[in-house]
Amino acid sequence: MKDGGDPGKERRRQARFIGTAVTLPFLMLAAPLVGLFGGRWLDERFGTEDLLTIIGVVLGLAAGGYQAYLLIREMMKDLD
Predict the structure, then answer these.
(1) How far apart are CA 42 and CA 35, in angstroms?
(2) Would the N or C end of the chain have less CB density within 10 A of its end CB?
(3) pLDDT, tens digit, for every residue of 17-67?
(4) Mind spelling out the 3-state secondary structure of the chain?
(5) Taking 60 as the threshold, does the pLDDT of residue 3 lie above it?
(6) What is the pTM of this model?
(7) How far apart are the C-alpha atoms of 71 and 80, rounded to whole Å?
């Protein structure tokens, strides 16, 4: 326990930390998959071969990485 504080507050902090740690892998998987399937659908619709699929995956990776950064930053604030 941190500084002999409220045990309920410490439990909430730990639960939030665990929740964030569990969320990260799903976030890093989901964002590129949305880009993949969205890009494939758009490629079929507009006949652009794999161009929009590649763009969708890259944007999904960027979005997932950014969201992971924000989550980790929040998690680090909670540890202080």
Answers:
(1) 10
(2) C
(3) 888 889 999 999 999 999 999 999 999 999 999 999 999 999 999 999 999
(4) CCCCCCHHHHHHHHHHHHHHHHHHHHHHHHHHHHHHHHHHHHHHHHCCCCHHHHHHHHHHHHHHHHHHHHHHHHHHHHHC
(5) no
(6) 0.81
(7) 15
Q: Residue 1 pLDDT more than 50?
A: no
Q: How many domains does the chain have?
A: 1
Range of the domain at 54: 26-79
Q: Is residue 2 part of a domain?
A: no
Whether the CB-CB separation of 27 and 68 falls below 8 Å is answered with yes
Dist CA 5 CA 68 (whole Å): 29
Distance, CA of 71 to CA of 43 (rounded, Å): 32
Contact 59, 37 (CB under 8 A): no
Say if 1 falls within a structural domain.
no
Q: Is residue 9 part of a domain?
A: no
